[in-house]
Design goal:
mainly alpha
Length: about 190
């Protein structure tokens, strides 16, 4: 007779609920940022919408039926989005930004949420068996996340010429507006 554990079904625990909560929060942040980014680059807004919907869809699927396979998929998703974010902070970001993206509070908060979701998923994603095999599962998920992040970055750069152009004036105003906000907050206004 097969038990739930041997069938790969993971019971709801603090770890599963934490992973769901943090991944959902990151998804909601991504969706909340869509209008802001859509105004200067529809492709960037669409990318954020896809990321947010992916995270929320994973959360719902994992809540309905948590499993080791879904734990691994969640781990790859969370780590992949963290790696993609890091890439776009040091390399030219796709969709007409002209350089790396700036580090902002909402980006850091969403990455913190994804990092906490990933931390909760590590023990759930590990394969049963000896310690070496367990860590190989996590290493494979991390490798898949890095490969997926670079592949997504490459596809976005390749697709950029096919997508609506970034409104450079609006993007500049957008960055200047954030800069002004930071200055205002720094002077106590």
């Amino acid at each position: 007779m097969q038990t739930k554990q041997s069938a790969g079904i993971v019971p709801h625990t603090r770890l599963t609920m934490g992973a769901i909560a943090f991944m959902t929060a990151a998804g909601v942040i991504h969706l909340a940022l869509v209008p802001q980014h859509w105004s200067h680059s529809p492709a960037h807004g669409l990318a954020l919408a896809v990321m947010g919907l992916l995270e929320i869809a994973w959360s719902v699927a994992f809540w309905r039926a948590p499993s080791a396979v879904k734990s691994r998929l969640g781990l790859v998703t969370a780590l992949g989005l963290i790696f993609l974010w890091a890439i776009t902070r040091v390399a030219v970001a796709p969709f007409g930004h002209g350089g790396p993206e700036e580090i902002d509070a909402w980006g850091v908060i969403s990455k913190l949420c994804e990092g906490l979701a990933a931390a909760a998923l590590v023990p759930l994603a590990m394969s049963p068996g000896n310690e070496k095999r367990r860590w190989r599962t996590v290493a494979a998920a991390a490798a898949a996340a890095v490969i997926g992040a670079w592949a997504t970055y490459g596809v976005a750069l390749a697709a950029e010429p096919l997508l609506p152009a970034c409104d450079v004036a609006s993007a500049g105003d957008h960055q200047d507006h954030h800069h002004d906000e930071h200055q205002d907050h720094g002077h106590g206004h």
